[in-house]
């Protein structure tokens, strides 16, 4: 009887803490977590925007940024993840345009003006610049 019961157990039958631990696994990406959260109410609750799963996803992707947050802050880690990701894409777009704008005869003095319109914390952009500078092959 016990073997038959074990065969019927699903992921959603696990205790919340164990479910969070599994979802915090570093092999899962943000897209994976988003897909898991769309499957059912139990998994959506495990992947709460302010919960451990999105905090861990943020920490794994951008560990140097956690110093800007207090443990007592009520942070929507999903929104922070989205904002940092968007800032990174915009920073990459701006840096990619430098070769066209800055290596010509006319160098515009407003080359970094796009940064001010990002609408996110400046440390997100600084972090992305550091990632770009530290990339191999750059």
TrEMBL record:
CDD domains for the chain: F-box_FBXO21 (cd22096)
SUPFAM superfamilies the UniProt entry points to: F-box domain
Highest taxon above the source species: Eukaryota
Cited Pfam families: F-box-like
Record domain F-box: where: 12-58
Protein name: F-box domain-containing protein
